[in-house]
Write a structure and sequence with these properties.
- This protein is an alpha/beta fold.
- It has one domain (about 5-235): 3-Layer(aba) Sandwich (Rossmann fold).
- The protein contains 6 helices and 9 strands, in the order ααβαβαββαβββαββ.
- It has helices at about 5-30, 35-50, 75-80, 95-105, 145-160, 200-205; strands at about 60-65, 85-90, 115-120, 130-135, 160-170, 175-180, 190-195, 210-220, 230-235.
- It has a 7-stranded mixed beta sheet with strand order 3-2-1-4-5-9-8. A two-stranded antiparallel ribbon has the order 6-7.
- Strand 4 (about 130-135), helix 5 (about 145-160) and strand 5 (about 160-170) form a beta-alpha-beta unit.
- It is globular and about 50 Å long.
- The chain binds S-adenosylmethionine.
- S-adenosylmethionine binds near residues 36, 97, 138, 142 and 143.
- InterPro entries: Methyltransf_25, SAM-dependent_MTases_sf.
- Belongs to the methyltransferase superfamily. LaeA methyltransferase family.
- It comes from Triangularia verruculosa.
- One of its GO terms (molecular function) is methyltransferase activity.
């Protein structure tokens, strides 16, 4: 892996997710939808109840971005159904996954303006202060870790003041974790990376404009410490 550039890593990941989309989608139904939704509920509750310098957080005219949305289950599905968002942008670099999310959700929710952007999240470009919420679950972990920090800076720029981000990161400090055949699929080459949960609070605090509202390690399945991630809810500080 040390020989692969970030571009090559992403090209291999794109091919893998396109190839194993069916296997991943079947597996992820039980791994761990309830945890993802419980954090999403916390985020939406905060969004609706916090004192905000920006009144756009309190109406139903909000905007959301999901990075690495996969097939849209369960997060996009919940965002579209919530009645809170007038516009939703979904991104994934797997066209198979993005098309699957789009064909399931776009027509059913034509009251919400949606945009479906295929490609690497580090290449996305939005105006500053574009979104009330940004979500990226089990997806920034696929970026080489230096790019994870660059993404945090972009997320900070793209959030409106008072806006919230829900993200998770590797608990372990690992430059490159590679599995050749993830989920038992021979096309399932995988790469993960991370600074580790103990370093993340300090690194996040260095990103201009973000404060940590929630930062905690959680096991994937309650009662099991086999696989754990560092979950955060971040708030964009209003800069006066
Ligand atoms: C483990 S899946 C998670 C999908 C979804 N967020 C979920 O919670 O089930 C990772 C997703 O991130 C996407 N992904 C990985 N690297 C990406 C990148 N650099 N830009 C955009 N999407 C990426 C993959 O194609 C895949 O759909």
């Amino acid at each position: 892996m040390a020989d692969l550039s970030p571009k090559e890593i992403k090209a291999r990941l794109e091919r893998s997710y396109d190839a194993i989309a069916d296997t991943y989608n079947a597996w992820t139904v039980n791994h761990p939808s309830s945890l993802r939704l419980s954090y999403l509920d916390r985020l939406l509750h905060l969004l609706q109840t916090q004192d905000s310098p920006d009144e756009s957080h309190t109406g139903c005219d909000k905007s959301a971005l999901e990075l690495g949305c996969g097939n849209g289950q369960p997060i996009l599905q919940r965002l579209f159904s919530s009645g809170l968002f007038s516009s939703i942008v979904a991104n994934d670099m797997s066209s198979v996954q993005l098309n699957s999310a789009r064909s399931e959700l776009e027509a059913k929710h034509d009251n919400v303006q949606s945009e479906w952007i295929h490609g690497d999240m580090t290449s996305l470009s939005f105006d500053p202060c574009s979104f009330n919420i940004i979500i990226g679950l089990y997806t920034l972990i696929h970026l080489p870790r230096s790019e994870q920090l660059l993404m945090l800076e972009k997320i900070s720029r793209w959030l409106k003041p008072g806006g919230l981000a829900l993200l998770n990161f590797s608990k372990e400090d690992t430059e490159a974790d590679v599995i050749e055949q993830w989920l038992g699929r021979k096309e399932g080459w995988m790469f993960w990376s991370g600074h580790g949960a103990s370093s993340m609070p300090g690194l996040i605090q260095k990103v201009q404009g973000l404060e940590i509202v929630v930062g905690e390690i959680r096991p994937e399945d309650e009662g099991s410490a086999d696989v754990e991630f560092y979950w955060v809810i971040l708030r964009k500080i209003a800069i006066s």
